[in-house]
Design goal:
There is one protein chain. With 609 residues, the protein is mainly beta. 0% of the residues lie in helices and 42% in strands. β32 and β33 form a beta hairpin.
């Protein structure tokens, strides 16, 4: 990992990617850079305010100011969409280290949990295109704190020959008023355009005392070509306490479909079609009954207690149902014995009908052997204290399903390994309800958030308090810790080139810095001498050191490493004190050294990015 920019200003988005495929621009603290080379484009500054405002080069709020102990949820701090806005998966963590309990800051952030559709990234930064006219709408939802403040930016048809440093938003609106107890409905995540009208659909929420964390969510709509505050509507099918996730567009009429998952039970679900032009919804599926006992599942409605509280359940992405024309996906469910037996939703796209099946026969260890004592609550203020997220992926032709528990409170489950263990299952190739226990991995500390770091979902990042842990998947061992980055990460995500960005820092009441990670940049370099020590008796000693470079997946990579000797008792061949070596992807690279005297000398490694 390389720190490429030290933060120097507060009123800026630390990392902002232009979402247009035709553009190769990324903004670091609002300064324009070439996305491929990261070279500065002089004179360019991102504009996030209307042209009528004199300081349109500044953001409305700060996204890199570190507030670890300030209790006010409306205090601006790092760890939100003002920190980072990228086109691929991004996750946020604001690292509140104050008292545990009823505070919005003790929630797991929700921005990467809005989409079941694998083609639409859950993100505050969206690009929506009219498939008929190719008109485009860029949207950036900047919620700078975890109260009822927000800014909604939009650019309609920005000129293709102009950058966003030369284009003001078409509209910016929001709410930044008093921190009172009034209900404020806010846009959250925008999904798709209605093929039959000039409207877009999305997910919104009620925000009062942090009601979004209750959660209390609804469907939203606005105008596509005239996106602004006067055309918004945020109260369609408002549901308390339900979390909405976008499934996809109907294959029959193009209308968006949403899954509503009940927070306080594990088994109540609705699937709703948003009839955009008429501002209402149609229930396509509902099930409010707890499942019965079957197979290895005891079924029923589990007791909400210290063993397992009320947790937010986050669905996997959907995938092709083997042997059928359906799409299917997993939704977490725990039976009365606190064992994970997920629901398997099936979507018959030929008729837009939905069914809910269940993985009731699990082979091998049940989840409670490894995963238990998961805090949760139905508090209006911090319903996202505990989040259970299951996600599925394919590697080497085999499908797997990992279930993760995330906790928003500072070090809440550090001392309980059962609450820090992720469990993975193998999925039968012909039947997605047939699961076999595969492996487990225990996170070193409370897992506060997680994010996948590649499209294949075989590289997983987990936010701890003072470290960011990177795990690589292999089909034999499961998730293996390959890299520990000793940084307090507030946001981690990927741009369209798959470069990994991190905004991180450790000092309270200071700015967080911008770091970059790519598969070709080593996060670890090893230099191993042929001997642990040398006994110099007056004559030069010829020896070697082995050099290797490893990426975030723990794989050897080939890269140029500059070695320099700090000290007067050792040289490289020919008496040089610096040399450059190219590491290998398959073995150690040997470098000749000469011990010229007694005493200590160090070899320092540097890599150019």
């Amino acid at each position: 990992m390389a720190k490429i920019k030290r933060a120097s200003r507060g009123s800026a988005v630390s990392v902002f990617e232009d979402p247009r495929p035709s553009k190769n621009t990324i903004y670091l603290d609002h300064q324009t850079h070439d996305k491929t080379t990261l070279a500065t484009k002089f004179g360019g500054t991102l504009r996030l305010k209307p042209s009528s405002e004199s300081d349109d080069f500044s953001a409305y709020t700060s996204g890199n100011w570190i507030e670890l102990t300030v209790t006010d949820a409306h205090s601006l701090r790092a760890g939100n969409p003002t920190t980072m806005a990228l086109t691929k998966e991004t996750a946020y963590c604001w690292h509140y280290e104050g008292a545990n309990g009823a505070n919005q800051l003790n929630n797991v952030d929700y921005w990467n949990f809005f989409s079941i559709d694998p083609t639409i990234q859950s993100s505050p930064l969206r690009r929506i295109v009219d498939s008929n006219t190719n008109d485009e709408l860029l949207l950036y939802n900047n919620r700078p704190s975890h109260y009822n403040w927000y800014y909604q930016h939009s650019w309609f048809n920005p000129s293709s020959d102009r950058e966003l440093d030369d284009t003001n938003p078409t509209s910016v609106y929001g709410y930044v008023g008093s921190t009172n107890t009034t209900d404020h409905q806010e846009p959250c995540f925008w999904t798709v355009k209605d093929p039959n009208s000039d409207r877009v659909s999305g997910i919104s929420g009620y925000f009062r005392y942090g009601y979004s964390f209750r959660p209390w969510m609804s469907i939203a709509r606005n105008s596509f070509s005239s996106f602004n505050s006067s055309n918004d509507k945020y109260d369609i099918s408002a549901s308390n306490p339900y979390w909405y996730m976008y499934i996809g567009q109907s294959t029959q009429d193009g209308q968006p479909l949403y899954l509503a998952t009940h927070h306080d039970t594990d088994y109540t679900h609705y699937i709703r079609r948003h009839n955009i032009s008429t501002d209402n919804t149609t229930d396509m599926f509902s099930n409010t009954a707890a499942p019965g006992a079957s197979g290895t599942s005891y079924g029923g409605a589990r007791t909400m207690n210290a063993t397992m509280g009320q947790m937010q359940k986050i669905s996997s992405k959907h995938f092709d149902d083997p042997g059928a024309n359906d799409k299917c996906w997993y939704v977490p469910y725990f039976d009365t014995s606190y064992n994970y037996h997920p629901f398997v939703f099936r979507w018959d796209q030929s008729t837009d009908t939905f069914t809910r099946d269940q993985a009731t026969n699990i082979t091998g260890d049940l989840s409670s052997t490894h995963m238990l004592n998961l805090p949760g609550t139905n508090s209006d203020t911090y319903g996202f204290l505990g989040v259970v997220w299951n996600e599925t992926f394919v590697n080497g032709g085999n499908r797997y399903l990992t279930v993760m528990y995330l906790c928003g409170e500072h070090r809440r489950v550090d001392s309980d390994a059962l609450a820090r263990t992720f469990v993975t299952y193998s999925v039968d190739a012909a039947d997605p309800t047939a699961l076999t226990h595969h492996s487990t991995v225990t996170i070193p500390e409370t897992a506060k958030q997680s994010v996948f770091l590649n499209d294949a979902k075989t590289l997983l990042g987990v936010f701890g308090v003072d470290a960011f842990y990177i795990y690589n998947w292999d089909n034999v061992n499961g998730w293996t810790l390959t890299t520990t980055i000793a940084e307090k990460a507030f946001a981690v995500g990927r741009d369209s080139t798959d470069r990994i960005w991190m905004v991180a820092g450790g000092r309270d009441s200071g700015y967080a810095d911008i770091h970059v990670i790519t598969p070709t940049i080593p996060v670890r370099i090893t230099i191993t001498p042929a001997q642990a020590s040398y006994n110099h008796t007056g004559s030069d000693i010829n020896s070697t050191v082995d050099v290797s470079a490893y990426n975030i997946a723990g794989e050897r990579i080939a890269t140029d490493v500059e070695l320099s000797i700090d000290g007067s008792t050792m040289t490289f061949s020919g008496g040089a004190t610096t040399t450059t070596v190219t590491t290998s992807t398959s073995a150690e690279t040997s470098v000749n050294i000469i011990i010229t005297g007694a005493g200590l000398s160090d070899i320092v490694a540097n890599v150019s990015i």
